[in-house]
Amino acid sequence: MKTDARSDVRSLIIIPCLNEAKHIEPLIAKLEQALRDLDAQIVVVDGGSTDGMREIVREIAAADPRVMLLDNPKRLQSAAVNLAVKELGQGYDYLIRIDAHGDYPLDYCQNLVEEALETEADSVVVAMHTMGFSLFQKATAVAQNSKLGNGGSKHREGAKGHWANHGHHALMRVSAFEAVGGYDETFSHNEDAELDYRLKKAGYGIWLTDKTAMTYYPRSSVSTLFKQYVGYGRGRARNILKHRSMPSIRQMLPLAVVPLFVGAFLAILNWIAVIPVGLWAFACVGYGFWIALGQRNPYGPLAAVSAMVMHFAWSAGFWLELLNFRNRRIAS
């Protein structure tokens, strides 16, 4: 495809964020090439930052009219994208979602638009590679980049370009986004998978590209990682309850972790009850040592710990949301 075709369509680059003073200026600078190559505008949708980020964006916007700041009183990322499309989406062909905590190639947006034009996809999603800096981040990155942490998810591992059901949100046709009602703002997590479900059900095409990808930086402590994955588990449960859809096999396996832990307390009656949870822990640690030895990665054993935190938190979040839903139904 001729790159000139990219300028025939208009793209709205949306950056939802909160307190990203350290990252926002270099991120916008990295997107300047996209502004030159595409007929695009950047909108930073802020959830009420107090770290000076708003002032930084205002200074950038004063010097470049292609950058603007928009307030997001609901603070959620899903609400930020919805608001940007509602306020500014008219006249744009595509929205491109950029997360402030990620890193992107200089030609990221350009490749997304080219893929959308070439495939005529309504949504172009990308693979997400995780990278860390601190010891715990590096171990978590190893876990999230492996089947131990991602269950073989194509948009986590990367794959040849293909039509998919889900992936990390990158580009979407504005008309398709609006036709299905945008993100469901009752979802604080997993809003992307929920929207992908509605897109597919409405007949829209989702293309997982292999032409570009983004880099994600994981949480830097056990507590923040645990909280994040509890949210993911709750979001997945909400998705399943809303659409009455069955979870995949790779999602069902970690669901068993919390029941295994609960069952282990029966060991006071019979020691056999502790075997299932012991096998799960042994499998995780064994996989971690396989990473260390087979891939010569010293973070393998600690990656097993990160994976166990993710499994348990995801399972806990799922069952908490399921029980909460059941209690709401009983109360009504």
The portion of residues assigned to helices is 40-55%
Task: Bin the strand percentage.
Answer: 15-25%
Q: Output the helix-strand order.
A: EHHEHEHEEHEHHHEEHHEHHHHH
Whole-angstrom Rg:
21 Å
Shape: globular
**Judging by the overall fold, what is the CATH architecture of the largest domain?**
Alpha-Beta Complex
Give the distance, in angstroms, between the N- and C-terminal Cα atoms.
Answer: 56 Å
Count of beta strands: 9
What does the largest sheet look like? 9 strands, mixed
How is the CATH topology of the largest domain named?
A: Spore Coat Polysaccharide Biosynthesis Protein SpsA, Chain A
Number of helices: 15
CATH superfamily of the largest domain: Spore Coat Polysaccharide Biosynthesis Protein SpsA, Chain A
CATH class of the largest domain: Alpha Beta
Low-confidence stretches: none
Q: What would the average pLDDT be, to the nearest integer?
A: 90
What does this structure look like?
The mean pLDDT is 90. The protein has two domains: 3-218, Spore Coat Polysaccharide Biosynthesis Protein SpsA, Chain A (Alpha-Beta Complex), CATH 3.90.550; 227-331, no CATH class. The chain is globular, with a radius of gyration of 21 Å. α6 crosses α15, α10 (191-201) runs parallel beside α11 and α13 (257-264) packs across α14. The chain has 15 helices and nine strands. With 332 residues, the protein is an alpha/beta fold. It has helices at residues 21-30, 32-37, 53-63, 77-88, 108-119, 135-144, 147-150, 154-157, 174-179, 191-201, 222-243, 249-255, 257-264, 275-294, 300-331, and strands spanning 10-17, 39-46, 67-71, 94-97, 102-103, 123-130, 162-163, 168-173, 206-216. Strands 1, 2, 3, 4, 5, 6, 7, 8 and 9 form a nine-stranded mixed β-sheet that branches.
